[in-house]
Amino acid sequence: MRAALIAGAVLAGWLAVSPAPAAAQPRPYEEAVAARQAGEPGRAVELLEPWVAANPQDVDARLQLGYALLALEDFDAAEAEFRSVLSVAPDYADAAQGLALIAQRRGAPSLRQRHVYVEGAISDLSQDREGWSEVAAGALLPLSANATSNLRAAYHRRFGVEDIELAGGATVQVSANNWLRMSGSATPSADFRPEWSIGAGVEHRLRDTANPTLVGLDASFQRFPLQDVLLLSPTVTQYFADGRFSLTARGNAVRVDGGSFRFGGSLRGDYFAGERARFFLGAATGPDTDLGVVTETTSLFAGTEFPLARNVSLTASAAREWRDDGLDRNEGRLGLKFGF
User: Fold this and answer.
1) Where are the alpha helices (H) located in the chain, listed in sequence order?
2) Model's pTM, two decimal places?
3) How far apart are CA 242 and CA 175, in angstroms?
4) CATH architecture of 26-106
5) Could you tell me the fold of the domain covering 115-339?
6) I want to staple 220 with a disulfide (CB 3.0 to 4.6 A). Which of 144, 163, 199, 213 is the partner?
7) CB–CB of 327/125 below 8 Å?
């Protein structure tokens, strides 16, 4: 009995002087979830990527990584995470919802993306006329969580005459499925570009699904040196294959100096091959105002955007245009886009 008392006293003394065990530290998973819920998706990605690499079967962590990447609009990487979750847990509803959200975001104006760009274009004209040229620079910048702005300055040269046009606009998401657009431009000492213009538009998502349908209407008034032009453009865009493809039909109704409307339209298909990788082609017919007077045209066009580096993309396009004034032309356009 005495020996037991002595042993207990020794044990109690040892516990009293021994350091307490450190408090358990939260896993990166819990820290990442807290960061994502606090509006810090970049921090969540930093925590989750090494965790998922070391624990690839942790479907909850992969799900959280997918939603963090979705918040950063890295749609391809987010889609890969959601599909990895579903390959292991086919009934994981949150992962399926994540894929639906990606399709919806691909089918909606981006309000988080920001970039600056430069581009140039050269046109070769028939009848041995002097070619057209154009150089432009612009930016797409977020104004708030639900609004973005766009700015553009362009130098145009037509038949030895030069115009410098300044333009700007904004897109505002007024509800989950509705966007409003506003735009305006000015050309000091205009020769063939609009002296000034003002425009507005609306876009509505009809089908809030993996393959959304969007309808829109744009209207603008343009005051050219030789005439005033009213332009109305209804559009319908349908997405396919979880947002990988889209088809856009656009109508154009042009009214010159209060006269009768002249009508045209275009059809364009886009393939979103990956993040910042896109191909498109289309055809258009109807009235055009490139020279400050309305001319009937028919055109075929195609183009692409693909990444050169992490935040740099190359844009390129080509077009063939047949014009009623006889000045048929071939246009080539090349640009660089810098994301940040």
Assistant:
1) 2-17, 28-37, 41-54, 59-71, 75-88, 93-106
2) 0.72
3) 22
4) Alpha Horseshoe (1.25)
5) Porin (2.40.160)
6) 199
7) yes
